[in-house]
């Protein structure tokens, strides 16, 4: 495969569009999800956590995300 050089990102040709409902699309999305998780895994405490309201659940998630950034 030959090496091609580009002077800027604008010169790089766009990939061909994917066909809707193509089963290959799901495989690509799952591979991207695996890659993202390997690059930055999520750390949530295991188990089921009950909250009285959506606001309480959002506050708890924000606490977990803040702790994960450390």
Overall morphology: elongated
Largest sheet descriptor: none
Output mean pLDDT. Answer: 89
C-alpha-based Rg, rounded: 20 Å
In whole angstroms, the N-to-C terminal distance is 43 Å
Uncertain ranges: none
Fraction in beta strands: under 5%
Count of strand segments:
0
Structural class category: mainly alpha
Q: Percent of residues in helical segments?
A: 40-55%
Order of helices and strands: HH
Total helical elements: 2
What does this 3D model show about the protein?
- Helices cover 47% and strands 0% of the residues.
- The protein is mainly α and 70 residues long.
- The longest helix has 17 residues, at 23-39.
- The radius of gyration is 20 Å and the shape is elongated.
- It starts with 22 loop residues before the first helix and ends with a helix.
What is the gist of this entry?
The protein has helices at residues 23-39, 54-69.
List the helices and strands and how they pair.
Blueprint: H1 23-39, H2 54-69
Give the key terms.
70 residues; 47% helix; elongated; mainly alpha; 2 helices; 0% strand
């Amino acid at each position: 495969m030959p090496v091609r050089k580009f002077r800027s990102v604008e010169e790089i040709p766009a990939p061909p569009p994917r066909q809707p409902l193509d089963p290959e699309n799901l495989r690509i999305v799952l591979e991207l999800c695996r890659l993202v998780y390997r690059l930055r895994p999520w750390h949530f405490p295991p188990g089921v956590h009950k909250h009285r309201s959506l606001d309480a659940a959002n506050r708890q998630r924000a606490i977990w995300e803040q702790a994960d950034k450390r």
